């Protein structure tokens, strides 16, 4: 791992993620607001971030296998998905089938991973103006990594939220439920990613 990406963001200062060298969080006006873009219409009860979504692997399994057959395996290569609201569900299903069936990891890790993938995809769909975006999943010793690539160089904005807030929680959830996350600026566009430890889950 690059030293620039090591460790968690400090909780004593402003909300900031471990961005790549040369990048920094953008001001919220005109940037991505970190909203719950991938979960429109969902319920977000005030009982804390882990109460925001309930997810059942059994219900999604068949749909996940169908998505894998149609789009390909994002653990083997980046897959392209259309920039449409329903692609958040497709990305969730792809992440679920890879984490549970291909990597053999825990349902709890899969539950958190599909939620956070949905948030990143939702932000890409809502805020970048792209026709397609890329989804890539990577397995490393003791880590799993989830990447969403889009053609916009606008940086996402992580905002502090209160317990009762129902918007602006997207990147807040990524920050809370992942072990680290960040943005890599590319020659054209960017990759937003998060990582989770495997050994202690």
The SSE order reads HEHHEEHEE
Radius of gyration based on Cα positions: 16 Å
What would you call the shape? Answer: globular
Structural class: alpha+beta
Structure overview:
By secondary structure, this protein is α+β, with helices and mostly antiparallel strands. 30% of the residues lie in helices and 17% in strands. It is built from four helices and five strands, in the order αβααββαββ. It has helices at 57-71, 87-102, 107-127, 170-177; strands at 79-82, 132-140, 143-150, 180-185, 190-197. β2 (132-140) and β3 form a beta hairpin. The two termini are 20 Å apart. The model is unreliable at 1-27, 33-53 and 164-168 (pLDDT under 50).
Give descriptors for this structure.
201 residues; alpha+beta; 5 strands; 30% helix
Can you summarize this structure?
With 201 residues, the chain is α+β, with helices and mostly antiparallel strands.
Secondary structure elements and pairings:
Layout: H1 57-71, E1 79-82, H2 87-102, H3 107-127, E2 132-140, E3 143-150, H4 170-177, E4 180-185, E5 190-197
Antiparallel strand pairs: 1-2, 2-3, 3-5, 4-5
